[in-house]
Design brief:
This protein is mostly beta strands and 364 residues long. The chain has three helices and 22 strands.
């Protein structure tokens, strides 16, 4: 796994191999921890059944650029109020490095602009998504922070192979200004300020070729931010987690852990609800994946709670965050594809369920 923390690795990459993928991930919560939002721009969406069908064919003619997509999830008090997972024709997408300091990504009418000015990062998401059900989300999110050190993870990570993970904005100030039009509940304007997170992922082959499953998550504590990446290669599980202070400086690394309290959903996807992380310095984090936000054949998203204990301090820090679990092999299991098609929208040919405001909500 290639781990970096450099703005230049957020730029769109060349992806000549069929099955390759790239995404720009953002999440944020308001100050009251009532609103949560997750937005992901994809260049080569690994969840596209069309992409995976072509990759599995003998010719393997499909490329990432033919399957741009965006997912938008907005939650209020743990309940989804807007959901979209949409793949657009390549003619409606753009992935460009404008300069050494600016990147532009566009999928449909949704635009992401990443900018660096000195030691400042400002990433702007202009969302304009209209669904066949009649739901709409229109407005802007801005993520602002100082840059983190380009050597946060050392100097050798960039030379490693495999799945690439670039962490450039572990903790950002966020402004959220959106108009939400619900075909069921009418229109409302939503404005708040809060705390956010951004990373960038890149792979040269389908995820199932590299790992069996992974747990990922981030937590904002009063004085720290924790990010973890637990990857099971099929032979062993690598426990990797990093604790940063509010300035984005590395305070502690975790390389030990355990999983417990397993649960399954209606698709028999099984994941741990409790994660414990530790290290030789006796730093400890206990994570409880408290509330399921998203549940499917190959994926969970949780709103989670965590308790952090650092030796030498009498206080425990409590934090909340977004966590995920994915089992990539199930993405390619055609048994589940009829259900995927109800939820995953091809903009030029939406599923009939997606045209019904009430039936589409059932897939959330």
């Amino acid at each position: 796994m290639k781990i970096t923390s450099d703005f230049k690795f957020d730029k769109p990459a060349e992806k000549p191999e069929s099955g390759s993928y790239e995404w720009w991930y953002f999440d944020a919560a308001d100050e009251k921890n009532e609103w949560h939002v997750v937005v992901i721009f994809y260049d080569g969406c690994p969840f596209s059944t069309k992409y995976n069908t072509n990759w599995a064919s003998e010719s393997k003619i499909s490329s990432a650029k033919e399957h741009p997509a965006i997912s938008i999830s907005l939650y209020f008090k743990g309940e989804p109020v807007f959901y979209s997972m949409s793949e657009y024709p390549p003619s409606q997408a753009e992935f460009n490095m404008i300069s050494d300091h600016e990147i532009k990504v566009q999928v449909g009418k949704n635009i992401l602009t990443l900018r660096r000015a000195g030691n400042q990062l400002q990433h702007t998401l202009e969302l304009n998504e209209t669904l066949p059900s009649g739901d709409e989300l229109n407005g802007t999110m801005v993520f602002t922070s100082e840059t983190v050190s380009e050597t946060l993870f050392g100097n050798q990570s960039a030379q490693e192979s495999g799945h690439g993970w670039n962490l450039t904005q572990p903790r950002a100030d966020v402004s959220f200004d959106m108009a939400l039009k619900s075909a069921v509940r009418g229109e409302k304007f939503i404005t708040w300020k809060g705390t956010g997170y951004h990373d960038h992922n890149l792979g040269a082959e389908p995820m199932k070729n590299e790992f069996s499953d992974w747990y990922w998550g981030r937590f904002h504590f009063p004085e720290h931010t924790l990010v973890y990446y637990l990857m099971n290669t099929g032979k062993t599980t690598d426990y990797k987690a990093w604790l940063l202070n509010r300035k984005g400086e590395l305070q502690s690394e975790f390389d030990e852990g355990s999983l417990s309290t397993f649960m399954s959903n209606m698709f028999l996807l099984t994941a741990a609800r409790t994660i414990n992380l530790g290290n030789k310095q006796q730093d400890k984090v206990m994570i409880q994946q408290s509330r399921i936000l998203d549940s499917g054949p190959f994926y969970f998203r949780f709103r989670s709670d965590a308790i952090l204990h650092l030796p030498g301090t009498d206080q425990l820090e409590q934090g909340s965050g977004i966590t995920e679990y994915i089992r990539p092999s199930r993405i390619h299991a055609r048994l589940f594809w009829p259900l995927v098609h109800m939820r995953y929208r091809y903009a030029d040919s939406p599923h009939w369920v997606q045209k019904s405001p009430r039936l589409y909500r059932w897939t959330w």
